[in-house]
# Entry
Amino acid sequence: MKNNSALLNPNKMKTRKTIAVAFIVLSVILGVIFYLKTDYPENFEGYFKKSYYGQFGPLAICVELLFAAYYLYVGHKKSNFALALFAFTALADIFFNLTGIFISGVPNYAMVLFFVCAVISLWIAFSNAFNLGRITLLWAIASFVLGNAIEFYFNYF
# Structure
């Protein structure tokens, strides 16, 4: 029988759901802020320029955090992959911005919040803190590659 002690232990379940709710609230608040800052082009050609679609990068990070938090809340077996994907995307955004590879659209206050969430997410994902299914090396590499691909899409191409 599979060990679901985190799902059955009320303290661990409460902690898991508290973290998930905090992530959901943060992702929704930041997502609304980023969405309201979206500038829409005046002509049709403007929709195909990097200046338009590049501004959705911070919103994409919020959506990743929202999905990861939802998976964590319900105790889905892919929670750890989603958390790692969010963390790698957020950390890549911060790293590339700090090194000057590209300029991020994420404001500094959101970078700090994303950094804290990313560290917590990586700890949960790789320690399997809530016994939701250990992330394999293949899925860890996949989340790293996909997180960087998402980051490059919104900031480089």
